[in-house]
What we know:
The chain has 200 residues and is mainly alpha-helical. It is built from 6 helices and 4 strands. It has a two-stranded antiparallel sheet. Strands 3-4 form a two-stranded antiparallel sheet. Strand 1 and strand 2 form a beta hairpin.
Amino acid sequence: xxxxxxxxxxxxxxxxxxxxxxxxxxxxxxxxxxxxxxxxxxxxxxxxxxxxxxxxxxxxxxxxxxxxxxxxxxxxxxxxxxxxxxxxxxxxxxxxxxxxxxxxxxxxxxxxxxxxxxxxxxxxxxxxxxxxxxxxxxxxxxxxxxxxxxxxxxxxxxxxxxxxxxxxxxxxxxxxxxxxxxxxxxxxxxxxxxxxxxxx
Length: 200
């Protein structure tokens, strides 16, 4: 999808902005926060960044977003930001999005079939949960006030709440990526190549 370095930079900036929107679109609804962890649309944006922009510009978009937030611009969930966010129980999820975009980009560059994109989305979602949940657990154990009776099992229990949403959005991400990549195929040696692949 990325046609040039300039095009890649523009798209990376766009996805960084989309992350800010995805982080806060649910911020006005208090029931979208579980154990201090807001339920957002950031995972699906990071997946789309990887599958659509590739392993280079997808992670770049997530890195731009991260540094904008750390610089103090309130683009993180619940309109937060600043260097103190590093100590937040949710900071692990922000770090995870960079890895998600990278692995999704690697897989999508190898296979732009729906099956390949679906695998990329599911693996990316697993990475979000592994890094984010373990960071949250460590934060509550060592430097942040934990909910009463908090333990490792409870950390994963909390994450069962957004899991159905993230599974559904993973499938949606693969569907969107598949359609977009077919609409804007890569050009090789001056010729446009289109792969006609059947979903499934």
